Amino acid sequence: MPFLDHLEELRWRILWCILSVMIGAVVGFGLVYYLDVLELLVDPVRKAYDNPNLKLIYLSPSDSFFVTLRLAIYAGLLMAFPFLAYHIWAFLSPALKPQERRVIIPPLYGGLVLFAAGVSLAYWIALPVTLDFFQRFQTESLQANLEINATLGFIVKMLMAFGFVFELPIVIMILSWMGIVTPDFLRKKRRHAIVLITVLASFITPGDVIVLTFMMMVPLIILYEVGIFLSVGIYRRKAQREQDFETDTTPPTGSVETQ
After folding, report:
1. By the 8 A CB rule, do 172 and 231 touch?
2. How far is it, in rounded angstroms, from Cα 189 to Cα 200?
3. Are 74 and 40 in contact (CB under 8 A)?
4. Whole-prediction pTM value?
5. 10-to-3, 14, 89, 90, 152 alpha-carbon distances in Å
């Protein structure tokens, strides 16, 4: 395909992606408004402050609308993800070899599952522990008036942080496929990786250093070992392909031997 045709295809796929996000945001706005999605995010705050009637405050007349709109965009991105993945894959796949396509497809689905697992861990375990830890300080002198934008931003950032960190095996898998890391390298650097995981968990999980950081460290260490296992499988497949290529002595079509 000529270069200008590539640009034309890219333009249309970008337009379709934007349109899918907009449609998802419209549908998400209805879901957020009528199904009280905000209640799911406020519920951990109520439990941490032991106040089932707690409501977040807002400082501007437009805050309630824009908070709903922001949640609708998040929901729209989630609902539009299959369409986004399809258009990205449809644009890039013609440039990939069949074996490269087989390597890339599993991480797309596995990454989504791992991201959901990280968000679930943050929502059900890490977030309640963190909120409970923070609300215990200076209770004699301070009274909590939780503002919606700051509180919602804190909650969403923690959920996203856990989700993205859980993509560690996918990152290792891609780096192994590119030849940047090897299973031996990952095994030798296991101690360094545990130290980095500990530091990362300490930054991502404010709160009880012993309990919350440990809850973050254990899954990451397990995911690191899973990444090593995936790296071994990738290098074995590479070695098998090279061996098959070296042992394949069939002359190409049209050569003197085939005539």
Report:
1. yes
2. 16
3. no
4. 0.75
5. 11, 6, 12, 10, 35
